[in-house]
Target: FAD-dependent oxidoreductase
Amino acid sequence: MHSEANAAHAGQGVYDALVVGGGLVGSALAWGLARDLERVAVLDEGDVAYRASRGNFGLVWVQSKGMGMPRYGVWTMRSAGLWPQLAATLLEETGVDVRLEQNGGLHVLLSDEEVAARAKFMETLQAQPGMAQYPWKLLDRHELADMLPGVGPDVRGATWTPVDGIANPLKLLRALHTAFARVGVDYLPRRPAQQIRRAGELYEVQTPEGTVRARKIVLASGLSNKALGEQVGLDVPVRPQRGQIIVMERTRRVLETPLSTLRQMDEGSWLIGDSQEEAGYADQDVGLPVLGTLADRAVRTLPALRDVRVVRSWAALRVMSKDGFPIYQQSESCPGVFVATCHSGVTLAAAHALALAPMIVAGRLDEDMAPFSTGRFHVQEA
Model:
């Protein structure tokens, strides 16, 4: 990680931009901001924070994104297209290979009913405005077997998109933090934002270690965005959603095309996931019923996994908005304060770093980002 020596200089002078949150969303934005701004800092709780960035599946995933908000599908596809640039630049700056692979992705279907429902879902998704070019194909069992050797007898088919892929989320977080030193970002750990005050044209953020001043503030602190947003005129309706993951031992690399619920890491270990539970903040424990369901589906998909041992499991809290879509907005009452929150920190890392950060530097979000504002919640409630 970036040296903590810069923490000693916090509060000396004024930052051009201060990012609250050092996870994948905040780190990608800070790295992107520092490409155009001279003084950027990141306030981070440190290891006591809810770390969705270290508990996720690591998919760079377009498939199924955007139902009910086509702009989200377009935004996701844009990020997938920018990912090679992000990965290559981080490798050049830090020497850290984030192990990006974009060989397409599969959503496996285990019954005729699942096939019919999935086909209808994808057709409806593609029929939305702006989604006509959404690339996908329904594969029958024989087509899938050519792509996924050893597929189980219960599998009826799959949907496939050519733009999906994977990355290593831990290496991505490491690369971004390592890059901070290269681009001049001050990383200030163990300094959660406690209070945000407007001081003329500047903003003052109170932390346990003192006050940090900046011209722009970016709230990227996940579940903490709700309370912080209230201080700067932003309604950020986010909630925790628990996800559980099973990790299996390393084997020879055989799975080249990731599934939405199953992937093999670059070093050979297997991950099984995709649980979604409304468990609240207090419960981050794993549960055998959920893990059993995940394991059963994985083994039905690839029966050879019966011979691969489970080595550990974990649970983490996703950051979910009221409707599940990202929130990007500038405060009307506190110009220069932005919020960025989503549950797809890996998938959207490239868009955050290379598309959203320049908008924040310019002081306004592009017009086509309007669907992501919190105004959508108030319209629904009116």
